[in-house]
Amino acid sequence: FDQQWESLKETAEFQHFCNENEDWLHDYAQYCAERDGNGTEIHLFLQYHCDKQLREAVKALHDKGLLLKGDIPISVNPSGVDVKSHPDLFNLDVQVGAPPDDFAAEGQNWGFPSYNWEAMVKDGYAWWQRRLQVMARYFDAYRIDHILGFFRIWEIPKSAKSGLLGR
Q1: N- or C-end of the chain: fewer Cβ atoms within 10 A?
Q2: Could you tell me whether strands 141-145 and 69-73 are parallel, antiparallel, or unpaired per DSSP bridges?
């Protein structure tokens, strides 16, 4: 970073990366800077290089006739950048998990917020669309972990420790 930042930030390639990712990149860099106690520039630099290296790896795999499959978790960290940047898209007064079953008598509490689908529908699910579009840059296929969460989710009151009080 110290050796390359000043020249990199002026390049057309870096500027293109920033413009292509403007809807999430600066929020993410700011979030990381606050979390890590440093500036945003290092995080822009790291994301640029991560993107560049992933694209190079994907091309190398494609050149060998291989495809790449990615994984997208359905839930987000309640303290993460998505919730901080778009709190209106999440129900922060509940957490999600799984109902009681043979494997977990008290159910499961994963501690993640549920989605505010009513808010998401207003902009045509733009947050999800963008998430999938970015993943499609790197993966030929992807799996959404716990995809049933799109159709049903076990919501638990924020004050509950187990999944017993969910619905």
Answers
A1: C
A2: parallel
